[in-house]
């Protein structure tokens, strides 16, 4: 059963932009912290970005700082990852994940911390 749904992936040239979205019909999604992870062929799944339950705190892995921006729209049950200045090394399947938390919880960088996952969306950046 689909828990979260990602969209917005595609093929883009280096330096281009994509906007990924994560949505759900799950109840109380506004009470969840949300993270984005990516996995390239032959590589381990890695943390990309996360946003707190309130949306007031955001986190990024060093390689995407200054290029990616995460935000959420609680009314639409949507979390967005805006990706600018894309590089070939950003090529991967991108997954969103969530976990219901207390208000002040800090999202974790480890995928095992999250309870709910989407099916993934492919992002391919050509050189």
Mean pLDDT: 94
**Largest sheet descriptor:** 7 strands, mixed
Low-confidence stretches: none
Topology as a string of helices (H) and strands (E)? EEEEEEEEEEE
Beta-strand share of residues: over 45%
The oligomerization state is single chain
Features:
globular; 11 strands; 127 residues; mainly beta; single chain
Topology:
Layout lengths: L4 E3 L2 E4 L4 E6 L8 E8 L6 E6 L6 E3 L7 E6 L4 E6 L8 E9 L15 E2 L3 E6 L1
Task: Explain what the structure shows.
By secondary structure, this protein is an all-beta fold. It is 0% helix and 46% strand. The chain is globular and about 40 Å long. It starts with a strand and ends with a strand.
Short description:
Helices cover 0% and strands 46% of the residues.
